[in-house]
Task: inverse folding
């Protein structure tokens, strides 16, 4: 747990420094752009479906206004559910740059041995992670809806699912650059991995902070992977 807490603190300390700050601004801008596009497309799609279903002005006066409000609300709910998926896909696309920025400052030897991920592989990893996140959230949706009456059950279900997903994805985006050299599984324990994913998933629920969360997760995961690996090496664990 000490390794996890120190890794989180180091990751937070780098959020507003040089290369990491530039990547934070770039990834946040791209995430917001994709989010706005998806929300707009979602609004038009829902509005069209409701129109096809017969909710038009010919049905009753004000049907168009009702349709517009319903479309906007459903689009916002859908966009909120997709936010973590979009943010994760974007941060995975920039993962190599964020990890490299942290490694060059704190772990230069590891940075020198890491392999550069081709753009095609970065895009494939981003799409694969987004696909896993979408599938997991779709599977969790019925359980979340069933717990809606509790007031907090829905949020807890989505938080738990995304904590597991984020912990795994953040670890892998770092370890992928080094697995060829180390020849072993990622050194991060399941408890530390889930803790990191849980914190990042919780931060993604907070307005404005959710822009910082993915980059904080990537920077902290870089420290967590390297520091956990050092502990394993010191203990002679393979």
Result:
């Amino acid at each position: 747990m000490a390794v996890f807490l120190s890794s989180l603190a180091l990751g937070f300390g780098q959020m507003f420094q040089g290369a990491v700050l530039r990547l934070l601004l770039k990834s946040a801008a791209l995430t917001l752009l994709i989010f706005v596009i998806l929300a707009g497309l979602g609004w038009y799609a829902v509005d069209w479906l409701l129109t096809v279903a017969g909710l038009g002005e010919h049905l009753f006066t004000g049907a168009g206004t009702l349709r517009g409000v319903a479309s906007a609300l459903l689009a916002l709910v859908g966009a909120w559910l997709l936010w973590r998926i979009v943010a994760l896909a974007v941060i995975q696309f920039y993962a190599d740059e964020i990890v490299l920025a942290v490694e060059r400052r704190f772990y230069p030897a590891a940075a020198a041995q890491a392999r550069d991920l081709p753009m095609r592989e970065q895009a494939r990893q981003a799409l694969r992670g987004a696909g896993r996140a979408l599938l997991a959230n779709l599977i969790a949706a019925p359980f979340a809806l069933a717990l809606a009456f509790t007031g907090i059950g829905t949020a807890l279900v989505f938080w738990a699912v995304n904590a597991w997903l984020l912990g795994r994805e953040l670890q892998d985006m770092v370890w992928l650059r080094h697995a060829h050299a180390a020849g072993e599984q990622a050194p991060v324990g399941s408890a530390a991995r889930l803790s990191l994913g849980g914190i990042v998933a919780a931060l993604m629920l907070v307005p404005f902070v959710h822009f910082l969360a993915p980059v904080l997760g990537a920077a902290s995961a870089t420290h967590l992977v390297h520091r956990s690996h050092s502990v394993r090496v010191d203990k002679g664990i393979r």
Remarks:
- Residues 167 and 196 are 6 Å apart (CA to CA).
